[in-house]
Amino acid sequence: MQERLYKIREHAKYGFINEQAEVVIEPQYYEVEDFYQGFSRVRFNDRLVPMDTLGRLLMKHFFNYVGLFEEGLARVQLVSKWGYINERGTIVVPIAYYEAEDFSEGKAAVRRSARFGYLNKAGDWAIAPQYERAWTFSEQLAAAQSNGYCGYIDAAGDWVIEPRFERCLAFQSGVAIVVVEDQWGLIDRHGTLLLPPQFEFSNDEVPSFFEERASFQQNGKYGFINSNGEIVASPTYAFVGDFSNGLALVQEKARFGYINLEGHLAIKTQFEDAQVFAEGLAAVQYQRKWGYINTTGEWIIRPKYEQAMPFKNGLALVAQNGKWQYLNQQGLVIWQEK
Q: How many CB atoms within 10 Å of residue 120?
């Protein structure tokens, strides 16, 4: 199991501590990202460079862009073309493609000339180039485009759902969101419409399922449907967040609260601001200060912080008097900025 690391700040530079609050990567970078799949990306010579949990930079090559590692490989861009590196920074798929997606289910969509196909991890064609556009696999199906419309293909590249939609999102929990005339609905794995397209689609708010619930917008208000296409919360809210820990953030009359999976108000709308639940706790703002509540709405950490982030791997980053601190779920400070 990889060591969990947490971003810290000292003298406007960033490094990382471990769970025991020991500094394992000295603050030395002006920009860092949280660790994901064993790597962070740090700003070095004005470029984002992958760094492992020992603080080693993958610097065999300098790229214009390095993506996140997925299934052990990361897409990289050099000038105008793309390829893939492994976790040692070695180029394992040549820099030869004009467009490239992340690996998923052992394949990655790429474009070498006019058409998209799919590579395997050895860099060979798993599905020959034949699509106008192609996206990542999810639940053994991938969205692809032909003659201006999208549908879904299987791992052999055969059409399972013929292209007839304007836009196709990835399958989640056995269903997928599809768009027709700027309205979205739901289909199952056979292409059967579970919910005819009827909700407003926006590139700024792409719908997605969390705990088999997805938010939708009608006439400027938000509600939720389940993965059967049934409305579980009517569109009455000014704003909503994703479901997590069985609850979703909602806003009514400038106040925030939470509804449960059935769409009933579980924690009344009383907070000035709020975030989604993570690891059983949610950061909420009350009387201009942030604290944390549990899923029954009880205060676990009283509000006294200027900023508060969601819990991740047992710790949460907060700010008090302009300085960073890490708290555990009992509210004890395990690290603070000097």
A: 14
pLDDT in tens, 209-268: 999 999 999 999 999 999 999 999 999 999 999 999 999 999 999 999 999 999 999 999
* Cβ(139)–Cβ(149) below 8 Å: no
Say whether 337 sits in a helix, a strand or coil. Answer: coil
What is the pTM (predicted TM-score) of this model? 0.92
Query: H-helix or E-strand containing 167?
Result: strand 167-168
- Output the CA–CA distances (angstroms, integers) from residue 262 to 216, 234, 258, 294, in the order listed: 15, 11, 12, 19
What number is the average pLDDT over the span 198-208? 92
Q: What is the CA radius of gyration of the chain?
A: 23
Helices (H), the chain: none
Do residues 48 and 62 make contact, with C-beta atoms less than 8 angstroms apart? no
- Span 263-301, pLDDT tens digits: 999 999 999 999 999 999 999 999 999 999 999 999 999
CB atoms within 10 A of CB 315: 21
What proportion of the chain, given as a percentage, has pLDDT over 90?
96
Output the six-digit token pair for 13. 């530079």
Nearest to 206 by CA among 230, 186, 233, 177: 177
Looking only at the bridges linking them, the beta strands covering 116-119 and 282-286 are unpaired
Q: Please, which residues bridge with residue 13 across strands? A: 10
194 close to 203: Cβ distance less than 8 angstroms: no
